[in-house]
Structure formats: C-alpha cells, structure tokens
C-alpha cells in the first residue's frame, strides 16, 4: 500500500530541532532550546523546560528573538540565557529569569554580543565572551554600548591577520575577550585585553576563573593555546599550562584540575584529539583517553561528573556517537551509552542524571535523560511526534562490505517508504564532509535522506577511509590522497549495493557537501559511473582553497603535508579542477556566497571549466548564506537546495518522466525557488 504522506523538502518548515540540554541543580528538570523555522528567512528559538520524572515540556521564555545557552544558577533559583530579543535584534545579550516565575531581566547591552556564559559558583556573577574591536574597548562600548548604536561597516576593509574571516563573517579587527557581569549592579568588567583571542571561561571555585588564550608568534597560524588561571578578587592571572588543538573547551574542578582537548600539532588534521587533564597544583598531566583509539567529539564538550573524579565526553564510534566516562587518572574509559546509528549531539551532566539530545533513524532529535552509569534511560520529549505520525519514515539498513585493500567498511541503505523488493529503483550516493567526519543513521541528514528516499530513490551513504570513529590509522589513511582512496572505498560500496536486484546499477547518482563536494568533483572527473551529480559547497582547487579559506588551510598542510609554494603541481593534480576536462557527467554546482570555509572562488573555477568543456551544468548560488546552509541556513534556502538536488537527478533518471532541469523553467516544481540566485538558467 502506498504511503499517504511522503516526506518532502518543504517539510523542513515543520520540523522542530532541540539543542543545548541543561540539568537543574536539583535534577528535577532539564532546560533546552526548541528551534523551528519562523518564516522563509528566520528561526524561532525558545527555551523550554521538561521534568526529568515525566511530563509535558513547557515554554519558559517568550517567543521573541532567538534564545540560546540556557544555564541554571548554582542554586537553581535563576536561569541565565542569551537572546536577541528587544530592540537590538542583531547582537545577543545576557538575560536572567527567575525560575519560580517573573519577568526576564536584561543584564548586558554590549557592542559585541554575548556568548559562552558561565555562572560564578556563588551565583553573584556570570562570565562571558564577547567579540570586541580595539576601538570598542577604547570607547568602552564593550562594557555598555550607547542607545541605538550601530557599527559602521568597514570601508575599505583593511586586513592585518593571517585568518581574517571564518565560516560566514569577517572579524573586522575584533578579538574575543572574557568579561564578568555582576548581577547585583549589572555592571560589566573586562578581564582580558590585547590583540589575542581569549575563550572558554570556566569556573573552578568562586574566585578562580579559567579561560584560554591564543598564543604563538602568529596566533592565527598556531594551534597552541594557553590555559589561564584568573583570580577575580585580586585581578591577577597566570598561564598554568599550554596545550594545542582545534577546540578550546575547558572543564575545571574546585581543587585546580582542568580537563581539555589536545591534538598533536604535527600534521594535526591526521591526528585524533585526546582528553587531557592538568593538575595545576601538582603540575602533571594525565590522558584518560590514552588507550582509546577514538577522537573526541566536538558537539559535546568534556564535563566532570558530580564527584569531580570522572569525566564524561563523546566520540564518533563506528557509525554512532558514544557517551563515555573515565576516571581522570585512568586510561580505560567505559561506554555509558552507545546505540547503533544513534547520534548524541549535546550532553549535560547533573548530580544524578545526564541529559542529552539524541537523534535516531526514526526521529531527528529529542531530549533524553539517563542515569550516570547509563543503566536507565528515559525519553523526555517527542517534539516531532505529530509530524512523524503522518509521514512514512524508512528505516536504514546497515551494510558492511570489503574495501579494495581488504578493510571492512560500513554504510547504510535507505529504501523508499513503499519499497517493493520485486521492483527496481535508482540509487543516490551521498559522500560526507570533513574529510575526518563520520556519518550515522541519524543527525542532520535525517530530513534530506528521507526526502530523497520518498522521491523514489534508494540512498546509500558510508564511512570510507579518512572518516573518524574507526581509529587513527583509518582516519589518516587518506594522507596526501583525498581523491583516489576515498573514491575506491565509495565505489566498492556502490558495487556492493548494486548487486541487489532492486538497485538499478545503470541509474546511479552522486552528491555530497564540503569534502563530499570535493569528492563529487573528483569522481565525475575520474569515473563515468554516475548518471548525474550535484557538487555542494566543495573544494575544487586546493591552492585556491589554501589562500581563501579560514583556518581550514591547515587541512592542506596537515593532510597533504605541503603548501602551494612547496608542491604546486602536486596540489593541482590532487584537485578536481585538474580533471575537469575528463568530466562527462551532468553536474550541478551549489554554493553559498558567504561561505568562508570553502569559499566560492574554487567552485567558480570548477563551474567555468565544466562550461568550457561542454558539460551539462548549472551554478546555483545562495546569497546571505555560509558553509552551514544545509544545516542552519534560511529555511527557504534549505528547502530550495534539496528540491534542486531532486530536480537535477529526476531530469536524468529513467524513473521520472521529466526533462532535465536545463530544459525547464528556472523555478519549475520549486516551492522556494525565488530565494536562490540561479546563475546559468
């Protein structure tokens, strides 16, 4: 029987996301952020609270602006959060709300906005991070901005840094600094200053605040950071340790132990991140993950348990995201929670319970509570039940297959919701980004994969060599060879699944984003296996990427062990553009104008070379979007992107009686088509 309601791209407007769970001090409730598209351009993000003992979630903040970072006070009598509500709808400010009822009070009105908030253990103040320029600090706008003040856009933009923009915005002379908001006087004081970045404030005891400082002759070109111990009463600070890594998350105890992620800076992109703990009194460092061949997950920062003897953290782990616990002096972490295919995207450790956001194959994410050891688990929310009850959701099938070097590889196959094994279906192959990322059966791709399956495609995705979650040797196997090694593993998976009678091996399509975009460009230039392809937010010229990206240029130095000056011809041959003259596959190129992680310049080159070569192609560019378009872009653009992928494939599929997209009106069958700048027809 056919499914009455299939999942569509436009359903994105109806899907609720949950983020940032936080356990109240008494453990009786969990605060979280409920996010849903508000209109075509924006989201509504509101804080909700749900009892851990069972009961319906209730809205805790008003539906105005975008709320984030809910944090209970140490006594639980107040909830601090960050919000864009009020007249200033661009710069998030700090607000505090009584938990027993009453109105929220705005604490800050600072020029650079507020983030990374942390309660002082006595509840008297909140530390936070702000992006502030030297002029902001000189004029003290970082302490309190004048009413109705708006920054003047730079004209011209003068740049004196190695890394001067990231993801979707320019820094424009701003540095991140640490501040303290006194809750009795509502006065803000600046704790750091200078031409360095400070981040990750975390309290030890009520007088000791830890945070990080970027270090090195050129901090932009260094992975090293100092861990600073700051006595807020004396106003004195000192560096207690120096570490290295991509993420600066700290977790501190009252007696001077600080946990942090560490990555060996020598070709760091090929190395796993370890959990380290520095005992500042004894001046020694332990590595609880020394015997764990997994890299730390960045979505959930390490946290101390209630007795401050165990640390909780997540890792990618063979197609799932696992929650671990480890003694700070031990080297044998134990799995607290791992479920096949499930993704844990946020964690908070309370006195008796751990709250987490978990997504699974049958839902895009909800709040769960587990006991500290993981023996008991309770689902606290079902935010998309009404939506999911009316849709056909297909269950992915795990598949294991042998790669060309004999390595066992893991992937998944998703069939249409009214699947009939006696019929045949076209296949869409998805390649993940990173390159050192890992896919599960859930997470941010839930909606896209289900939409493609509902359109009548079988969808295949996998974790080829280079992926995280399978050990350091597996992750580093693509050193100096992104293209060929990954392609061999992906094609081995395609061969494996097309052996099934219901998969039409002559109708195979390809797409991927970021590194997946690189691989799409690489594969269409090195094989004619695919009927059509969609290359998204990709890297197509490694030299152009090295010069235009943000700090991700370290991927070239680390993964390839070189720079454009040292081996220009090698990097050219390792780039998809070098093989563009061999492309025959109809290829749609999708990019965002404000993507500073994989800037559009290399996509422009790839697209032009395809045009010059006579390939069926089109270049779709999204204004006001960055690298995160597929996950958190404007809702209309998120929908439009998926619909354009489907339309491109349908036009070259024998299973869909429609002409190619190039022969149709620009916005035919696109519910949000007017939102895109369709360059090329």
TrEMBL record:
It holds the Pfam family PD40. Residues 446-652 form the Peptidase S9 prolyl oligopeptidase catalytic domain. Residues 134-144 have a biased composition (Basic and acidic residues). Keywords: Aminopeptidase, Hydrolase, Protease, Serine protease. GO terms for molecular function: aminopeptidase activity; serine-type endopeptidase activity. InterPro entries: 6-blade_b-propeller_TolB-like (IPR011042), AB_hydrolase_fold (IPR029058), Peptidase_S9_cat (IPR001375), WD40 (IPR011659). GO terms for biological process: proteolysis. Residues 664-681 have a biased composition (Acidic residues). Residues 130-157, 659-681 are annotated as: Disordered. The keyword Hydrolase applies. Gene3D superfamilies: alpha/beta hydrolase, TolB, C-terminal domain. Belongs to the peptidase S9C family. This is Dipeptidyl aminopeptidase/acylaminoacyl-peptidase. The lineage of its organism: Archaea, Methanobacteriati, Methanobacteriota, Stenosarchaea group, Halobacteria.
